[in-house]
Design a protein that fits this description.
This protein has 320 residues and is α/β, with parallel strands linked by helices. It contains eleven helices and ten strands. It has an eight-stranded mixed β-sheet with strand order 6-3-7-2-8-1-10-9, with helices on both faces. A two-stranded antiparallel ribbon has the order 4-5. Helix 1 packs across helix 5, helix 4 packs across helix 6 and helix 6 runs parallel beside helix 10. The C terminus is likely disordered.
Length: 320
């Protein structure tokens, strides 16, 4: 049986891709960004996922204002690299997993999520930059990738609640797939940034760090966040972070935070990154055992109160 073992979030700043492609990663401006992902590369090399489900947004490469799917699932065997105006990035073609993608499509659509299915689709920096940050610059990507493009460019984007629920449906689909596969879900985009208008250049580190905290420990708070709150606190493009909630919805309620990294700026964007693993069964039992002790402690308190009340009644009877 396939299983989702972890989730990863990462910004997908196009300038990060340019720094990689032009061999500028060791320059002082970029060094901290790339050093922040070294531990992540070590982690994913040990985990060795069979499949990555990459949640990202297209930047007018596969889609345009003429066709704007809310959720578009890549079901092809491979996905060519898009030309974003200066030629395709020099990265490997993304190889898909059409069998698992078709299974996810059937399960999720029957769960009443109206996906657009893409049997032919080019992918851009929204997907390839996070792959670079996690896997480096290999000749071939070390695992299959299923792209899931989310509209966060044209109004109205999906709500955080809807994205989280889609993650839940994806988890259900993956867990019903018979092949033994290890799956990691990438949620990309963000963090706070605005690229135009009077607030261009906005970065809100306080909001970003609170978002990371809640992603680990209280995702339901993020699920309730409105589009307006994203835009007010994180800038017009900060709404990209609803895609992180698809990743979080695909995980268990209880997760362990393996690693976190945050830095500003990269171009005009706050770079945020987190790795969450589903909590091991043994850890769950230990946590449950720890919680079991508390009711017993609480049970002793009412007993003590009853004894004091009985003593007061006895005193009152003596006084009367």
């Amino acid at each position: 049986m396939a299983r989702i073992i972890a989730g990863v979030t990462s910004s997908h700043v196009p300038a990060i891709g340019a720094a990689i492609d032009n061999h500028r990663t060791h320059e002082p401006y970029w060094q901290r960004v790339f050093e922040g992902f070294e531990r992540s590369k070590e982690w994913i090399a040990k985990v060795k996922p069979d499949v990555v489900i990459g949640v990202y947004n297209d930047h007018a490469s596969a889609f345009s204002v003429e066709i704007i799917p809310t959720f578009a699932l890549g079901t092809a065997a491979e996905f060519p690299i898009a030309d974003e105006g200066w030629g395709p990035r020099p990265v490997p073609v993304v190889k898909g997993h059409p069998e698992l993608a078709a299974h996810i499509a059937q399960s999720v659509i029957l769960d009443e999520f109206d996906l657009t299915l893409c049997n032919k689709m080019e992918v851009d920096h929204g997907l390839t930059v996070p792959l670079n940050l996690m896997f480096g610059t290999p000749k071939e990507w070390p695992c299959k990738v299923i792209p899931l493009a989310v509209n966060v460019v044209m109004y109205p984007p999906p709500t955080g609640h809807r994205c989280f629920a889609l993650g839940r449906a994806i988890r259900k689909a993956v867990e019903s797939y018979p092949e033994d596969l290890k799956v990691v879900v990438f949620g990309t985009g963000g963090m706070s940034h605005q690229i135009s208008g009077q607030r261009a250049g906005l970065i809100n580190s306080r909001f970003d760090k609170a978002f990371l905290d809640n992603l680990s420990n209280n995702p339901q708070k993020l699920v309730r966040m409105s589009h307006l709150e994203y835009m007010r606190e994180a800038g017009a493009e900060g709404v990209e972070m609803v895609m992180w909630l698809i990743m979080r919805g695909a995980l268990d309620d209880q997760v362990d935070e393996v690693y976190r990294f945050y830095t500003v700026p990269a171009s005009n964007t706050a770079v945020g990154h987190i790795i969450l693993e589903n909590r091991k069964k043994g850890a769950k039992r230990a946590a449950a055992h720890g919680r079991a002790k508390k009711p017993a402690a609480r049970a002793r308190r009412p007993a003590a109160k009853l004894k004091r009340a009985a003593a007061r009644q006895k005193i009152d009877r003596v006084r009367s």
